[in-house]
Amino acid sequence: MEFVYYTTAGIVLYFLSDLILNKMEAFHGDRFKNRSVIFFVIILVLAVSSFKAIELMVS
What is the pTM of this model? Predict the structure, then answer.
C-alpha cells in the first residue's frame, strides 16, 4: 500500500512544483534562465519532506 502513497505524492509534487515555479516566475516578471535547476530544487525539497512524513505515518 505504501507504493500508492509514494506514487500519489510524486504526482502531486510534480504539479505542485510546477505551480510554485510558475508563480515565482510571474512574481519575477520573466522566465528564469535555469528553470530546470530551480524546478529540481523545489521538487527535491518537497519530496524529501513529504516522503519522510509518509514514512512516519506508515510506520
Answer: 0.88
7: cell is: 506514487
**CB–CB of 17/51 below 8 Å?**
no
Domain residues of the chain, as ranges? 2-58
What is the spatial distance between Cα 25 and Cα 38, in angstroms, rounded to a whole number?
11
Query: What does the pLDDT profile of the chain (59 residues) look like in tens digits?
Result: 889 999 999 999 999 999 999 999 999 999 999 999 999 999 999 999 999 999 999 98
In this structure, how many other beta carbons lie within 10 angstroms of the beta carbon of residue 42? 18
At 46, which amino acid appears? L
3 state DSSP class of 43: helix
